[in-house]
Amino acid sequence: MKPKRPCPSLLSPTARLPCNPSLAPPPQWSTVEPEEGKELGAELRTQNLGRLHQGHALSSALLSTCGARASRRVAALVEGQGLQGKRLLYVPNVQQYTQLSGVGVSGPASHLAPPPVDLLPPEVCSLLNPAAIYANNEISLRDVEVYGFDYDYTLAQYSDTLHPEIFNAARDILVEHYKYPEGIRKYEYNPSFAIRGLHYDIQKSLLMKIDAFHYVQLGTAYRGLQPVPDEEVIELYGGTQHIPLYQMSGFYGKGPSIKQFMDIFSLPEMALLSCVVDHFLGHGLEFDQAHLYKDVTDAIRDVHVKGLMYQWIERDMEKYILRGDETFAVLSRLVAHGKQLFLITNSPFSFVDKGMRHMVGPDWRQLFDVVIVQADKPSFFTDRRKPFRKLDEKGSLHWDRITRLEKGKIYRQGNLFDFLRLTEWRGPRVLYFGDHLYSDLADLMLRHGWRTGAIIPELEREIRIINTEQYMHSLTWQQALTGLLERMQTYQDAESRQVLAAWMKERQELRCVTKALFNAQFGSIFRTFHNPTYFSRRLVRFSDLYMASLSCLLNYRVDFTFYPRRTPLQHEAPLWMDQLCTGCMKTPFLSDMAHIR
């Protein structure tokens, strides 16, 4: 057995890594641009980022456009006029702002704090831990007696080197078996093109990101490998960004004309779809969008059904399987504390057996009370007709009727209703982990009351980006501009409109830069600018917990209680949220609130 890689330790479910509160600018501060090299107001942004590091809340370029009346209005906001209470507000370097605008701040400024060393206080800039478990719903592990697991991307984490193999094999199947043009072979897999959770409009050959309210995020719609202009996207959907419910993906992500790509295996599928469409469009070839989509989907399916992917992994476990020692540690720890374990996977027994032997050892089945393979999820959770079948060591089926599920035995197919009847494992006593929100978790939570945990490998990378100074400064600046836009919009004179237009433009540029930090084409899998993505909406709905990998459990006691952070609704916390939105970060009120955030 390989030595177990040490895991980060946590003090609480929201434990954060230590952070130097002094956010002095690095020697070479630069923004992250989209890979295509698009210039998004780089000169102005670089200037403003530099000023932001010095503690300036607003850019000199924008403030110099302010007329006298507009400047006085902003200065009034800076002083805190019009806000509830008599809080002592702080805006970085307000004196310099008044010098730039040529307008003095009305009233005494003695109550303003001295200029800061940093823009963000320690409470705000402390770093999130990528090894933490995050709670959507309160859950105590003390109440959990039974733990269930999916196999692929849950017990077995795969390296990214698997995706190019899937892409290449499916691409060759299209050429050799579906007689697609030979020119498709020139395309290689681009791991930075797509993200999980995107939607694909089959009839329009459009890959796009949609938010929790069914709106397309403009700037994230692609036909082939080329972005579709915002105006064209709006025209395609009847003059709006909104996708009606009847067109959207159904409960399992498959609507009449729009499909959502929810699992990690869909990344090479999205890339191949885009490459094939790009080839047909680039060469002026006519094609039926529905046929093309089905052919690509079938080619990807063939890679799995024909066992190609299984063969690659079985030939080189060390190359493809990650964190096997940590999986063994998680399972052993749970068994040592008297927990019952089961496995329900769609993968075949021979493949699962070899992988578990690699990660855990030849006696891996002794850790599980029930093992079910080729379960055919999600229909396993809803179809009562399929009976359990017993498999022997060689994978041959037995014909006898199953009246009980025995430890150490292997079962195929079956259904959840017989599973519940034979095991009597019901409700919140059971916690099941999987990576697919629809196929693994949705039915279990909504129909059967199980507790669920989502494995989201992308979470680790996204948190590391969120922890960067560039992200924190960019987000804070966006919030400052948003707050100013909200307050200044009531003034419609020419000077105010000029300032509002400049702020709106700069805010949009910042949003594009922040998006590109995660992915140049589609941004974060969790957000569409300020709104949650459709993926995030499903994540919150179908999972009690979510984490980057199963190994995160090693950082918590088996009786630990996870508490979701109380996220204020729009009407619940106007005081401190007001200040976050205007960039007025350091106030006694916010400091008092920090310990309960």
UniProtKB/TrEMBL annotation:
The keyword DNA-binding appears for this protein: no
Residue ranges of the TM segments: none
Gene3D superfamilies for this protein: HAD superfamily/HAD-like
Region described as Disordered: spans on this chain: 1-37
Pfam families the UniProt entry points to: 5_nucleotid
GO MF annotations, alphabetized: 5'-nucleotidase activity; metal ion binding
Protein name in the entry: 5'-nucleotidase domain-containing protein 2
Similarity annotation: Belongs to the 5'(3')-deoxyribonucleotidase family.
Keywords associated with the record: Hydrolase, Magnesium, Metal-binding
